[in-house]
Amino acid sequence: MTVSSYNPADPADLVIAADTAGALGTQAAVERARAAQPDWHAAGAAARSAALGRAADAVEAAAEELAALAVREVGKPLAEARAEAARAVAILRYYAQAPYAPSGAVHETAAGPGLLLTRRRPHGVAGLVTPWNFPLAIPVWKAAPALAVGNTAVLKPAPEATACALRLAELLDLPEGVLTVVPGGATEGAELVDTADVVSFTGSTAVGRAVIAATAARGIPAQAELGGLNSALVLPDADIEQAADHLAAAVAGYAGQKCTATGQVIAVGAAYEPLREALAKRLTAAECGPVIGEAALDRLTGAVDSARTAGAAVLAGGRRTDGPGWGFAPALLADVPAGHPLRTEEFFGPIAVLLPAADLDEAIALANAGRHTLAASVHTRDLDTALAAADRLAAGMIRINAPTTGVDFHLPFGGTGSAAYGEREQGAAALEFYTASRTVTLLPSA
Fold first, then answer.
1. Which of 226, 290, 305, 360 has the maximal Cβ count within 10 Å?
2. Mean pLDDT score of the chain, rounded to an integer?
3. Same domain, residue pair 176 and 311
């Protein structure tokens, strides 16, 4: 069987048709990774650091090629694709230093001579299941920390990002079995989850829950990032024009296909009317690339039609755009009923709901009511208000006077509630996730 990906801007353009690994091929990849892992770990900090450093250099040298491939395969705007390639380089360089980080601590014994040590050791084979929306950065931010601490890795990319994953692995040029890509879909993903020693997953909530159940049954560590219905709170004292710029970018950037994209705009008090006008104007004028496929386009247009039927007002966009690709005009809707799916689910596209709130208390209650609390933003000139909101919002990442989108790769990344499971990704937190702590007691022999 083969897995194919097509250009979202020109669905007639076949980017790649790759042979799927199948269950047996995935098993074989895990076995090769397991055989390679002891030597990779035993090679030591200097060897792993150098390998990741060389990988960073290779990705940097091919950055324009990778950006062009991301534009073609997943429809990413060129500027964002270039930024993603640069981020992949930075992540590799960041984790190239990680092999030298302390892997434990020395403690005093409770009584008498001896030593008590804690040491962190790799799990073995890391199974990485990645989405299509960040085809360069997400595979790297999962693989780099896993490799840095001595695991080997098997990567199962989303079918829509197969070409990016295969090219990225070629450029990293790691020893045989250290990083393997298995093209495919649900069969390969399920087999990887059933055979790896630690699993990191980013994708839909439904699949993520199955991953969580499978890894829990096996008793292995897992982390799952499942997206988010993210809220932006705009206070009356905010710079409304600046807030509208930030919100438009967070709604329409990369056609809203980011787990940190804004899906719910909450305007407090007197901010509602001017924000409604400013944001509708910006989204109407926004340049927005295609969504990933026809099914995604149908889901978005269906949501708008359903909301309109339920009494919502469409303030901007919400329709398919002209042209050969899967284009959708960024949408802003008001008066969406509380029970509508646009108020409760992530649609992964350039669509947002505008809600009024009488005060900050109501705004926070609206933001915290959802199950998918990954990111939130607060727009205000008042420091006390910003700090109070940051303390009370349930989201895993809170940004003040900034879009909900945007990630600092050296800090923990993750949501709360149904948005995430397990330990955080990125930064030093990832190094802990990909290792297990061992306690060693050393006592005198006599």
1. 226
2. 95
3. no
CATH of the domain at 11: 3.40.605.10
Confidence of residue 139 (pLDDT cuts 50, 70, 90): very high
3-state DSSP assignment of residue 14: strand
Maximum CA pair distance of the chain? Answer: 83
Residues 6+ apart with CB under 8 A from 397: 260, 374, 375, 376, 404, 407, 413, 414, 415
Are 208 and 254 members of one domain?
A: no
**Paired tokens of 335:** 């008066």
How many domains in the chain? 2
Predicted local distance difference test score (pLDDT) of residue 58: 98
- Token pair, residue 110, equals 């409770």
Q: For position 370, what pLDDT does the model report?
A: 77
Q: Quick one: 181 and 322 in the same domain?
A: no
Gap between the Cα atoms of 64 and 77, Å rounded: 13
Domain hosting residue 396, numbered range: 230-400
Cα angle vertex 90, ends 85, 92, to 5°? 95
In a domain, 104, yes or no: yes
Task: Give the Cβ contact number of residue 62 at 10 Å.
Answer: 17
CATH code assigned at 310? 3.40.309.10
Residues 6+ positions from 248 with CB-CB distance below 8 Å: 279, 282, 283, 286, 330
Query: What are the tokens at 75?
Result: 């429809």
pLDDT of 17-45, one tens digit each? 999 999 999 999 999 999 999 999 999 99
Q: Is the dihedral of CA 25, 31, 33, 39 positive or negative?
A: negative
Residue 414 lies in a domain: no
Cα–Cα separations (whole angstroms), residue 42 to 31, 34, 167, 177, 288: 18, 13, 27, 15, 48
- One domain, residues 172 and 184: yes
Q: Report the C-alpha gap between 205 and 399 in whole angstroms.
A: 24
Supply the pLDDT for residue 302: 96
Q: Which residues are catalytic?
A: 225, 259
pLDDT in tens, 144-159: 999 999 999 999 999 9
Q: What is the pLDDT of residue 151?
A: 98
In this predicted structure, the answer to whether residue 415 has a pLDDT above a threshold of 90 is no
